[in-house]
Amino acid sequence: MRQIPPLAAVRVFEAAARHLNFTAAANELGMTQAAVSYQIRLLEERLGTSLFTRGGRRVVLTEAGRQAAPLVSEAFDTLDDAFGFARAETDQVLSITAAVSFATAWLAPRLGRFQLAHPDIALRLETSNFTHDFGKSGHDIGIRTGRDPAMWPGMAAHFLHRVYFTPMCSPDFAQRLGGLTDPAQLLTAPRLASDADWWDLWFKAAGVETAVSMVPATRFDAQNLEAQLVMAGQGVTLLTPTFWTAELADGRLIRPFETVAFDGVCMWLVYPEPKRRLRKVRLFRDWLIEEYAIHARTDTTGAFVAP
C-alpha cells in the first residue's frame, strides 16, 4: 500500500521548493501565504521531519527537502504527461449553450472573429432556451437570461446587458401605415409578441395608456422568428436592438421610436466555477465582454449598466 501524504500539501511543497519562497508559491497556486505555510507544516508533521529552514523572506531546503524536491517535481511531471492527452482535447474544444435568439441573431455572426483570433480552439454551439445542468451536459459556457446570478449556484456569472426592447418593422410596413410618428398608432397595427407582457411594458414606457394585453397578438418563442416575419412586412414586433444592429444598419429593419422598455431580466455569461482557469473559457469570456463593451460605449439606454 502506498503511503502518500495528502496531495494538496505535496503540491504546495513542490511549488515552494522550486521558488524557495512561500509567497511566490502562494501566488502560483492562488493561495495565501498563510495557507502555504499551513500546508507545509501539515506535511512536515506527517513526515516527522522538517523540509525547510525558515529565515527572513526566503526559505532553505533541509537535507530531507533537497532529496525529496526533485523526485516530487518529476512525479508531478509524470502526472502532467498522464493527463496531457485528455487536457489537450478539452482545451481544443469549447462547448457553448446559448438562448436561441441570442445565438442566431448576435453570437453566430461574430464567432468568426473569435475563431480568427484563436484558430486552435474549435467551437460547438447548441441553441436552447432551457437551462442546462452543466455537470451532466458537459457544456463549458452558457449565455442565459435571469434576474439574479444566484439562480445558478456553483457558477461564475458575468453581466452582459439588461434585456430591453423596442418596436421594429420593415420600412415598407411603416410606409403602408402612412409613417409611424405616434406610439399610439401601434395599438391597431398587426403586432407580433414573444412575451405576453412586453407590449404592456413598452406602451407604458412610451406613455400610452391602454389595456393592450387584451388585444390579440401573434406570439412566437424566439425573436429571430419574429424578425424574419417583420422584415417580410408581416407586422411590427418588439426586438432587442443589440441583436439586430446589422439589420438596422442596412435598412432591413427600422426603429420608429427611441423609447425602450425593460422587463427586469438580464443576460449573463455563466460557466462552472471549476472551469474559471481553463484557457479556452478565459479567452472566450474576455472576447465576449470586449464585444459587449463596443455596444456599451455608444449606448444611451442604460441597458449595459448592471442593475
TrEMBL record:
It comes from the Bacteria. This is LysR substrate-binding domain-containing protein. PANTHER family: HTH-TYPE TRANSCRIPTIONAL REGULATOR (PTHR30537), HTH-TYPE TRANSCRIPTIONAL REGULATOR TRPI (PTHR30537:SF74). The keyword Nucleotidyltransferase does not apply. PROSITE patterns: HTH_LYSR. It holds the Pfam family HTH_1. The keyword Transcription regulation applies. InterPro entries: LysR-type_TF_proteobact-type, LysR_HTH_N, LysR_subst-bd, WH-like_DNA-bd_sf, WH_DNA-bd_sf. Belongs to the LysR transcriptional regulatory family. Residues 5-62 form the HTH lysR-type domain. It comes from Sphingomonas natans. Keywords: DNA-binding, Transcription, Transcription regulation.
